[in-house]
Description:
This protein is an alpha/beta fold. Helix content is 33%, strand content 18%. The chain has a domain at 1-9 and 53-60 and 73-157: TIM Barrel. The strands form three sheets. Strands 2, 5, 7 and 8 form a four-stranded parallel beta sheet that branches. It has a two-stranded antiparallel ribbon with strand order 1-6. α1 crosses α4 and α3 runs parallel beside α5.
Amino acid sequence: MARFFIIILFILSSGCTLVPSDDPVEVPEKTNDSVMEPEESFVYIEDSFFLPILALHHVGNPPANLSDSAKTWYTSEEKFENILRIIQDNDYTALTSTELLNFLAQKKLPEKSIVLTFDDGAKDFYEVVFPLLQKYNIKATMHIMTGVRGGDWLSAE
């Protein structure tokens, strides 16, 4: 079962790459007077484990002209915000796909982990999802399509 999750995560993250920036980034030096975060408790992975992964596409109201089957790809903004409240109120640790892969390589996970992924790079991620993620301080991974023509997708603008 763990192999299945690793294979799925590898496939999902295989389209993601890091692009180096030409602009230097200043990294503040660590000081001894910094506040230490409490150490998280971890679950060590043996052969199988439970990890909720929410894979979403669109958040908001679907356009009226969509078929009923296409409307199933949409989650209402209210329902999504309720999901974020549940994650926050129950002290879950939201992981990015990269963080998950790193933890799996170490054979451990934060005790109450969850992964949120968004497929396709729809504009509603920027307009609806991102502000809510910031509001609740929850991480997610967005997988952007690279071969989109037209439609309601994120672009360089």
